[in-house]
Amino acid sequence: MYRTHSSDLAFVFNALEKQGSSWVPVDSSQQVIQPLLYGYGCYTSFRLSSLLPGSPAHCHSSNPDDYLNWHKARLIEDSKALALFFEGLGHLSRLDILTLFFGQTTDVPQCDETDKKQGKDCVIRLNIVPNGGRNGNFTAIIQARKNKPIQASLLLTTRSVATGFQSFEHARQSRKALRLKSIRYQRPFAGIKLNALAEPLLFRQQALADGFDDVLFINPDGSIAESSTSSLVVLNEENRLITPSPKRDFCLPSSTVAMLQIDMRAANSEPINKKTLMRSRGVFLCNAVSGFQPVSQLDQTDLPLAYTKT
């Protein structure tokens, strides 16, 4: 049984090499809130259930520890890019997180679809933020250099989630699909999963107001990057899974795509444009919270729906 699944939590992780690890509840605005006001930091997010054995989030050829290690590796790289330093990130283990929700780690269950349908799952977000101070460490932020990093903290927060994680196999069997609006936009510092999400979410709000479900960002050269909070995967006309390249196409690295690549030995990085989508056998958005969702429309054009009846 989950310790909590409906209340929002916020904890700071303390890792002491000789004394073990512990979580400290956030109760001081000086500690975390002020640094968050500047939007300076990075994060990664995933479902609590994805840390359990049997979760579809890490597919069949991986395991929960590999899954968390992928998220930690991205967080470490993003922290370096922002000149943020948190030594304890290397000490963070899957059991450290699960202890918050299940108490004794020996009682951690298998991932269970019934629990998820009853709303006992949640989204975990790991945030690296500058250590707080009287001015939120603003001076240190503007003077940060890679050779003189800012001391930072690891903040864990949670939020509720209403739907289950949909695997790629289930997405191919779904008739419920998304309608996307294309927008010319190139995410600045695209390889870093920044705490600041205002720009992509504002674009998504505009798309919703126009009757769409989300946006699809198109780079100046016509290549497709991603949506507001999801990565793109395409089943192309040759029946191969392809996805944009984070370095070339200004999109974020995706844990969900990485697990798909491990599981299916597929999803090579290739340039994708609108013509690629029109000629495809199926288009999908994916992220670590929702899983895979098919796409049926881009602007006013219908896209092939990769529906396979079982």
How would you summarize what this structure contains?
With 310 residues, the chain is an alpha/beta fold. It contains 10 helices and 14 strands. 26% of the residues lie in helices and 25% in strands.
Overview of this protein structure:
Helices cover 26% and strands 25% of the residues. The chain is an alpha/beta fold and 310 residues long. The protein has helices at 29-37, 64-81, 94-102, 113-117, 138-142, 168-172, 198-209, 246-249, 255-264, 274-278; strands at 10-16, 20-25, 42-47, 84-85, 122-130, 150-160, 178-184, 214-218, 231-235, 241-243, 268-269, 282-287, 291-298, 301-302. It is globular. Strands 7, 8, 9, 10, 11, 12, 13 and 14 form an eight-stranded mixed beta sheet that branches. Strands 1, 2, 3, 4, 5 and 6 form a six-stranded mixed beta sheet that branches. Strand 1 (10-16) and strand 2 form a beta hairpin. It contains ten helices and 14 strands.
